[in-house]
Amino acid sequence: MLRLWGLWFFSLFDPMGPASKTRSCSMTIPYLQLVVMGAFALVFFRAGQMERSWAVLWAVLSIAASLLALRFLNWGLGGVFLAQVVLFAGITFYRMWKSE
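Given the sequence above, the corresponding structure tokens read:
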């Protein structure tokens, strides 16, 4: 059971997604990655609105972080989650530094 979970977890970092080993077609549209990217952009947009900050900038930074993880670094879906965590931490530290 643990081995299957480990294989699934590390397959999240595969650029083609967790099911890339079973696909025979090399040109597929990564719908799950696009949905996750859009969901994170929406979350950052709403967080920016609640903070009365630049909500569009936060959403654009979220999309840029997702694209960096997916296309340039080839980290896959797990990399998108990691990039969003790093972006959230970066925004948090910037706002803490700015408020002092």
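The first helix runs from residue 2 to 11. Try to locate this feature in the token string yourself.
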